[in-house]
Structure prediction request, 338 residues.
Amino acid sequence: MLNAVEQGVGRTGEPAPLLSVVMPIYNEQEALPLTVRRLRPILDGLGITYEVVGIDDGSTDATPALMQKIHQDWPEFRIVRFARNSGHQAALTAGIHRAFGDYVVSIDADLQDPPEKIPEMLSLARERDLDIVYGVRGDRGTDTIFKRRTAGAYYWLMRKLVGKKMPNQAGDFRLLSRAAVDALKAMPEHQPVYRLLVPWLGFPSGEVVYVREERVAGSTHYPLSKMVRLAVDSVTNFSASPLRLATWLGLLSFVLCFALGVYTVVAYALDKTVPGWSSLFIGMLFLGAVQLFCMGLLGEYVGRIYSAAQARPAYFVGYDSAEGTDPATARRSASYTG
Prediction:
């Protein structure tokens, strides 16, 4: 269900800004002031109307109070606060759905993606009439070797699923036109993974290459467990290929079992049926592993069907400064979005 703001009618009569910068924020009390100090002069220097949509994803530190202070000093900084933590992709969804701008840029609050590239993205989109401009990481030297290897494997797999239209090393730092935003809003994805959905649209696109920097402050909010979860969501939300993999594994196990059956018959005919517990044990382990693996794949898809059938909202918005709600009473009138 889309509320008035998400339908684009909550602007109190003001014209829509040319640019919206969507920024998911979770427990960034150390990084956020540095990000604002670096981002604001860049946007002010563009000479255009803009807004910065800060999505507070249920922060538990001093981030909400800090965002309120920034909003008072910087009217273009808009606050959208979740009633509870819902995750990075849900925060991106809320920001994209609620942004008013003709162009929407998504960027994290840790300054690993340089805001200095935003003018270049906007200029490229307007000059070439592009709907999508990806921020592509040309150098990940600040990441650990493990992070670079796992990221490389992730993008290799995703390009196999989506095709070469998915840029290599392109994360969630991107620019979208209003046409691309409207297309994403019309898609009935329950758990969208924008790294795959945006390239899938096939809209005219370009790239801006940048050097990925170190986190400006604080610790990462994307540990290994969340990286694995993102990979699983990316594959299972976008492709049925793993189910076909289960079919091929079942066929492989059948061929292997048939070969073992032939071997057993030949051994019996030659009177060489010495008890071989090891081969039996290995065969049982193999079949059990294949069956459990296939059941796990089926469970992932059934779980997503169940979640979609429940139709629960992906997040609850407790406060949006564009709606003029009093932050002290915002939770009592929380809106929601599926």
User: Anything to note?
Assistant: The beta strands are 19-25, 50-56, 77-82, 103-106, 132-139, 170-177, 205-211, 315-320, 335-337. Residues 319 and 330 are 5 Å apart (CA to CA). The longest strand covers residues 132-139.
